[in-house]
Each structure stands twice: as structure tokens, then as C-alpha cells.
Design brief:
Layout: H1 6-19, E1 34-40, H2 45-61, E2 65-71, H3 74-85, E3 93-96, H4 99-107, H5 115-127, H6 131-136, E4 138-139, E5 142-143, E6 146-150, E7 154-158, H7 159-165, H8 175-187, H9 201-224, H10 234-248, H11 261-269, E8 275-278, H12 282-289, E9 301-304, E10 318-321, E11 323-328, H13 334-343, H14 346-354, E12 359-360, H15 372-382, E13 386-389, H16 391-394, H17 397-411, H18 417-432
Protein name: Raffinose/stachyose/melibiose transport system substrate-binding protein
Keywords: Periplasm, Signal
Main location: periplasm
């Protein structure tokens, strides 16, 4: 091995000792800066600024390492990432939703197995996270991503518009209650729901939650493992019928099939729709995407869980949401791992939680969660009886795309619930070949 000189050589050697990675050094003399390429899809400039400050602090403590942030919009990210990972321009680490997509990326050999690095030094790095988060990002006993955050999808509503329509959000307990509320809001001349059908995945939340409420964990697990009736299970078809019933009420704002997710957040933030089914950080994101940059005041926004389905096997405490992490590519320098350990330590995860960005997974960062609605999301997750990753991620990229297409097709009346279930089943069977 050729030896690097100076402080940078000692630091890299220390990283190598921590991670157990073999490092090939460059030529003698002063080493050039190491650039760590970080690929994300965050559109909120306030959140990006928090990350950038953390990266700047890291750079100040680690001369010779530069953190380069790269951005791709959500749909472009999903479309381009498979090709990008095989190219010389692959990022060193990137955002991941976990699930079948991450597992497939691991199986293609493009990702670094993080198991040895996170277990080094008596597993100090590994033990710094919620262990359920680590387990959720582990496939075939290989840790495939560094845990970042947990999240859950729920309804957010405009209190003033609900009051105008005479709707009591606390009374929405079942899907029938929800449909009645939608009708009442529409009768009051208000668009009930801000929908982002242009990107499709925001609509799949409805189908996914209804499948969970109707069929429960056993039906979904059987379907994704090729057992029983698969995605043609009667409860899954029933979920489609319930989604179709919602669609017949025309609950979304005009033009929702061409609306992106940021635009849907803007519709809600501008007070042009009474509800939105969104992430735990929807309160902050609706501000950013509103016309005036202020959106709805925090105290005018309420939140409620996706309602139960009468007679369904699923529990109202079952949750749908993300378990997100940072996947590392095989070409990444050891500095990428060192930075990720820093980015996701308790102090920095607490800072991100305080900014309303995340429900943290770093042990000891829980006290950073601020705001009553974010606290509600964290509490809901703490009492979740089954936390299911997003269907379009859990089922892998090819089946996930069909799930998103089917959800939009059903709610817009373009395909029947039975045909939609069959399309997902066909995609699943094709994916198994």
C-alpha cells in the first residue's frame, strides 16, 4: 500500500479501522480533496439549508473533504437512478424508501454492504439507531442503508373550511364517515381533497390504506408472497370498490390528474381544498408550496388517522408510511460513511426534528420533535400495530409502478377494481419470473 501523508492520511486510516474497509491510496504528495456526492430529492429549500449547514460544519471539522449535494425531482429520481447507479457518475450515497426497491438495488451489487462498518467497535454505530429501523433496512442479513427517519401518512385538514362546511373531524372514525364528510364539504362549495394525480403515487396512499384496512396484514403478506388469491383477494377488490366510490364523488380539485405533489400541497396551503392525505411534515411543506409562502397557519391545521373500515380485518392503529435511509454505493469513499454517521447522529437528527423535517431514528433525538401535529405522528408510530412501508416501494419498482397506475385508474373511473387487482397480480407474477 502506498502511504498518504499528513492529517488526511491519519483520518482516512482511522475511518478504515472503524469501518473495516480496505483503502487504496493515491500517489505520494499532497492529496486532492475528496468529494462526497450526496443525491437527494428534497424540494423544500428550508430543509436543504439545514442539511447544507450540517455539511458545512462537517467540512470545517474535516479539511480535505467536500460534501457535494445533488438534486433530482421525485419522478426523475425514480426513473434515472437505476441507470445512474451503473454509470461513472453514480452518487456516493442517495435517499432510499427501503422496501423491495432497496432490496433489488442490493441484489444487483451496486450497494455497499454496511454490516461490517456498523458493527465495528462493538457495534457503536449500529446501536445509535432505533433497532427496528435498522432491521427494516436489512435484507439477507445485510444492512443496505443508513437509517434516517420514520414517517406515517395521515389526513391533514383546514379547520376553518371544515367549520364552514359543518364537518366535525373528530367524528370521522370509519370510511363511511369519511365519504359523508367529503359529500358535505363538496355541498358547501369547497373542494374536499387536494390531489396529486399527476405523479400517481400520492393517490396510491388511498388504495394502500384501504387494502390494509380491509384485508389486514395477513392478506397483504400473503399477496406479496404469492399465497392464496394473491392480489385478487376479495378484500383487495373491495378496497378498489371503496376507492372507486370515493372517485365518483369527484372529491379532488379540478385538474388533479395533472397536478404534481408540490402543486397539491400548494392547493391545500392556499386554502383551495379542505384536506390532503400526506406525510408527517405536510404542515411545513404546505407553507413552502403555497402562493404566498406562508400557507395555512399551524393552528388552522388539524390531523386525523386514515379511518377504519367497518368489518375489515385491519386495525385503525395500523399505519402506512416510510422507513427512509441513505444507501451507499460500492464506489463511495470511506469519507461517505464517516459523514453519514455524522449526519444521522443524535445531535444532527435532533436539529432536523426541531426544524420539522423528520421523526428521528437516532437514539436520544426524540426530544427534538416539535409541534403538536408532528408529536401526534410520532405518537401514532409509537403505538402502531403494523407499520407498512409504501406499497410502491415495498413491492419493488415494476410492481410498484402498476400499483400507482391502478390507483389512479380506479379513482378516475378508467379501470374497474377487479381489473385493477388483476393488473397488480399480473405484474407480480411477471416480476417473479
Amino acid at each position: 500500500m502506498i502511504h498518504l501523508r499528513g492529517a488526511k492520511a491519519l483520518r482516512i486510516a482511522a475511518i478504515a479501522a472503524t469501518t473495516g474497509l480496505a483503502i487504496l491510496a493515491g500517489a505520494t504528495g499532497a492529496a486532492a480533496d475528496t468529494v462526497v456526492k450526496w443525491l437527494h430529492l428534497e424540494t423544500d429549500p428550508n430543509y436543504v439549508a439545514v442539511w447544507r449547514k450540517i455539511a458545512d460544519q462537517y467540512e470545517a471539522k474535516h479539511p480535505g473533504t467536500k460534501i457535494e449535494m445533488q438534486f433530482l425531482a421525485n419522478e426523475a429520481f425514480k426513473a434515472k437512478l437505476p441507470t445512474l447507479l451503473q454509470s461513472k457518475d453514480a452518487p456516493d450515497f442517495f435517499f432510499s424508501w427501503g422496501g423491495g426497491v432497496l432490496k433489488q438495488q442490493q441484489q444487483t451489487g451496486t450497494l455497499l454492504d454496511l454490516t461490517a462498518a456498523m458493527n465495528a467497535k462493538d457495534g457503536a454505530w449500529l446501536k445509535s439507531y432505533n433497532q427496528a429501523a435498522v432491521k427494516g433496512l436489512t435484507f439477507d442479513n445485510k444492512i443496505s442503508a443508513v437509517p434516517y427517519k420514520l414517517g406515517t401518512v395521515s389526513f391533514f385538514y383546514n379547520k376553518a373550511l371544515f367549520a364552514k362546511a359543518g364537518v366535525d373531524a373528530s367524528a370521522i372514525k370509519t370510511w363511511d364517515d369519511y365519504l359523508a364528510a367529503v359529500k358535505k364539504i363538496k355541498d358547501a362549495g369547497i373542494a374536499p381533497i387536494a390531489g396529486g394525480g399527476g405523479e400517481k403515487w400520492p393517490i396510491h396512499f388511498y388504495w394502500s390504506y384501504l387494502v390494509m384496512r380491509d384485508g389486514g396484514q395477513q392478506v397483504f403478506n400473503d399477496a406479496k408472497n404469492g399465497k392464496g388469491n394473491g392480489f385478487n383477494d376479495p378484500s383487495i377488490i373491495k378496497a378498489g370498490e371503496q376507492l372507486a366510490a370515493l372517485g365518483k364523488l369527484e372529491p379532488f380539485q379540478p385538474g388533479y390528474l395533472g397536478t404534481t405533489w408540490p402543486q397539491a400541497l400548494g392547493v391545500f396551503g392556499d386554502g383551495k381544498a379542505a384536506m390532503i392525505l400526506g406525510f408527517e411534515n405536510t404542515v411545513a411543506n404546505q407553507r413552502t408550496n403555497s402562493g404566498d409562502g406562508k400557507g395555512q397557519a399551524d393552528d388552522n391545521i388539524g390531523r386525523f388517522a386514515f379511518p377504519a373500515v367497518t368489518g375489515g380485518a385491519g386495525l385503525p392503529t395500523d399505519t402506512l408510511g416510510g422507513l427512509n435511509g441513505w444507501a451507499v454505493t460500492k464506489k463511495a469513499p470511506p469519507e461517505a460513511l464517516d459523514f453519514l454517521a455524522y449526519l444521522t447522529n443524535a445531535e444532527n437528527e435532533r436539529t432536523m426534528a426541531q426544524a420539522g423535517m423528520i421523526i428521528p431514528v437516532a437514539v436520544g433525538a426524540e426530544d427534538g420533535v416539535k409541534g403538536p401535529l408532528m408529536h401526534e405522528a410520532a405518537d401514532q408510530l409509537a403505538h402502531s400495530t403494523w407499520h407498512q412501508n409504501f406499497f410502491d416501494q415495498d413491492l419493488g419498482p415494476s410492481v410498484g409502478r402498476v400499483v400507482n397506475d391502478v390507483a389512479v385508474g380506479i379513482v378516475s373511473g378508467q379501470i374497474t377494481p377487479k381489473d385493477g387487482a388483476q393488473q397488480v397480480q399480473d405484474a407480480f407474477e411477471q416480476d417473479q419470473l
